[in-house]
Here is the input.
Amino acid sequence: MRIRILVLLGLLCVQAPALRAQINAQMPAGPGAPAWDKGILPISRDSYWNAVECGKQGGVRPACVFYDADLCKNDDFTLALYTPYKSVAYEVWRVLQNKQPAPTPSYTEAQRTRVTIGVTPVAGSKNAITGVLVKRGGKTIEPTARAVDATGGKFTFDFTAFAPTSDITIELAGRLRTLTCNVEQPVLTLLR
Here is the structure.
């Protein structure tokens, strides 16, 4: 009996690495002009106008708008962060891409926006998302809202989950395995 238990524990230890994968968050290369080092915050007068300037950057994928591209790059999921800053910057960028005059996005709408992590499967991935958690200092932060379907999921958090005060871990639970993405404090300051 004792040998069976030891064998089973040994098998679990051998299989455990395949069920978990760890990633380190990285920001895209290139300038993220206009400069930003305050992390994800509720919209303010200063961050609103900084976001408008960000949206005016132009190009196919300006770093200040698409800072989250490849943030936690892995073979199973693609992440997209939706924040008040990004909603303003993206709206300006999108309209300018269509050769229209720069808009003035709704400040009130941006005030209602929280931090949402959108998760979609990478092409060919069989690991469907089931949940997302943020961990900081041994504490688990649950999303305030979540929606999961066959195309992925959206997980909404309060701003404090992403405060640039200390490192966090984003846990991406899938049906087949769980991935963790370590986001160090210096990277958190650059998120918008």
